[in-house]
Amino acid sequence: MASQEVLQAFVQAATQGSFSAAARKLGRSQSTISAAVASLEIDLDLILFDRSSRKPTLTPAGHVMLQRAEEILAATSRLEMTASQLAQGVEPKLTVAISDTYQSDRFEAALSAFEQRYPDLELECLIAECDDLVALVQSGRAHVAFAEQQDSYPPDLVSSTVQERTEIALFVSREHPLAALASIDQDTLQQHRELRLATIVNPYESRAKGRVWSAPSYLMLLEMAQGGFGWAPLPRWLVGRFGAGTLQELNVRGWPKPLFVDALWSRLHPPGPAGSWLLSKMLE
Amino acid sequence: MASQEVLQAFVQAATQGSFSAAARKLGRSQSTISAAVASLEIDLDLILFDRSSRKPTLTPAGHVMLQRAEEILAATSRLEMTASQLAQGVEPKLTVAISDTYQSDRFEAALSAFEQRYPDLELECLIAECDDLVALVQSGRAHVAFAEQQDSYPPDLVSSTVQERTEIALFVSREHPLAALASIDQDTLQQHRELRLATIVNPYESRAKGRVWSAPSYLMLLEMAQGGFGWAPLPRWLVGRFGAGTLQELNVRGWPKPLFVDALWSRLHPPGPAGSWLLSKMLE
DNA sequence: CATGAACTATCGCCTTGATCGATGGTTATT
DNA sequence: AATAACCATCGATCAAGGCGATAGTTCATG
């Protein structure tokens, strides 16, 4: 079986174009490299180098084997990389729960930076709203969450406001009766169906003052609004990105409202280095 | 450095859920597996298994490392696979030159079968016509070629006709004057510009009897025909697939012509097992 | 609760393979 | 012709993988 040392010797020899140079690079003696390549050639039953000239050059078969060997070395270096990260306490998998309330610009920037920093770390993104997000973090199912700001959180959660503001406004389909009105008061609004977020934890605290339909995500609400089923409070960026011009913003007193996003994590299941790093990126 | 044996022991132990079972599977003693896992844990500075219960179970970190370890083993088995193929004389890289004359159905079927049979073999496809194809095979640059049948080939080439027939017909743009005529004789045809294949080897044997534009591939000819620059003989399937209904077939005596495709290879640089296998698939 | 079956950890010993330094042969440069 | 750099080979050394035996755990069962 081709061992790591042998493969490394082969790859270095191939890329350096010289056994001696490879030996110097790897800090081994020249005879070691020579023996390694020879043993590899025997094991694979192939001639890897053409030794007729001064400097050994790869045979065509050698070129192909070089690729395969480099794949192995790359895989082992990935293994060592993630091992050292795990040994330093980095979580094996990072779970982030976000609201689709959340404006994606900063988050995407943070994610791409994260991808550079922890290329091999598994990342799980959950989508949920309000109480569901709190529950996910509390239970330890998610390490970090980004949620629409609430007045208070359970005592075991820590929150910090993200420096970024979006807006939530009221929208209806362009075909909806309300779309024609220049300005709308509360009573008029109440005469039409509201599309509202429902959480899974807290299915529906029925303080309904009118007909209400609910869905567990803003994206579903948007689709229901597009269907003309009622008016809905929606994040502006979401409508801009997925609304495709089919929605109309309503002019109602008190709207649009500014939106503040909190980062949440748990004192009991504190995020590891990767989670903390992501948090600091998001909060800077 | 994590050796293959150790990794294999780890992966087997993880998938079997038991060190002893892994030992049986790998034909090693139980102590070997135990020692291997222990040494791996020391090397990586990680606890991979939770030994508190009867059967050892992977820790979260162990799950991640299992993935990485399997990547390495997969890479080494690929290395061994291609090594054994190369050792049996399979060419390190197969170069096939085809004419875009060639109907793709059978060729695509052959390619996908090829992909099953030689998953790790590098494949290069060159596109050329007539004399260029012959030159590619003669020089050894391509191992196999599929070309429009010619009367004779250089003595060092072997040819065999592919059992498949396509048709070449004359086409013009729908806006072209010829498109309006129900039937056309040779003289009328000669009064308009011909779009003809030019090879690179044999740039243009100027027996032109009229205004002629030429291009090195049928696809370019098709585009020129779509531009309305003249009439062109084109393979039917090519027009059906890339013509997008913009071309009109001409009714001329002697057209459409049946098209025969020859497989070509060289006696001097005979194709290896992979090339021969592809040939037999194509000729069956 | 006692027993037995199956499992893991550890110890001593052996074999394999990676490594080194020394030596000699080959190739290209001066 | 001399030199410098390169590769192959040999014998010795040492670490790591392997085995078998043994002892300690864990779990199911009567």
Automatic annotation (TrEMBL), chains A, B:
Domain spans labelled HTH lysR-type: 7-59
Protein origin, superkingdom: Bacteria
Keyword Transcription regulation tagged: yes
PROSITE patterns per UniProt: HTH_LYSR
UniProt keywords, alphabetically: DNA-binding, Transcription, Transcription regulation
Pfam families: HTH_1, LysR_substrate
GO function terms (MF aspect): DNA-binding transcription factor activity; transcription cis-regulatory region binding
PANTHER family: HTH-TYPE TRANSCRIPTIONAL REGULATOR, LYSR FAMILY TRANSCRIPTIONAL REGULATOR
Membership in a protein family: Belongs to the LysR transcriptional regulatory family.
Name used for this protein in its record: DNA-binding transcriptional regulator, LysR family
Organism whose genome encodes this protein: Pseudomonas migulae
